[in-house]
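Journal club side-thread
Mid-discussion, someone asked how the predicted structure for our own chain would compare to the paper's figures. Pasting it here so we can look after the session.
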Amino acid sequence: MGFPLTPDKIIDSVYDLDLDGLAAQGIRLILADLDNTLARYGETAPSPRLRAWAEEVERRGMTLFVLSNGRKPRRSKTFCEGFVPYLSHASKPHARSFRKVMEEYGCTPAETVMLGDQIFTDVWGGHNAGLRAAIYVRAIALDSLPRKLRYGVEAPFRGLCRLRGDKL
């Protein structure tokens, strides 16, 4: 692992993820942030496109699991129930929740990747847990000043990833 705040790969959207490539590398568990990674803030249900993508993940023998820091557990429950398993209040970037989910699914860090739109929670958390890869997904929407500021602060780490090249 390189610097813990540098993503191993950058993609524009979860739909750009090479599912066949991940499956070929032995990935069995895809942990994903919810807000601004899988769906816009406030979206109450997965879109048909997201449901179809999750089915593709499953068809390739992988599990999609939402790992959210959301402060409103009802949001994760409303969005994920009947769609994919989830854990709210994950306390990312601490590794505890990552390890708990891997243990629950019988997966090792080498069989697990993290997808997320935030360097300081998703990418750092994935590296703290020793995952195969921490994949940065461009935020779906930068619709508030705090999100725009955070995106700007994270720019050097995305730049390091581009300079170094994808490690996945």
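Post-session note: The beta strands are 9-11, 29-32, 63-67, 86-87, 112-116, 133-137.
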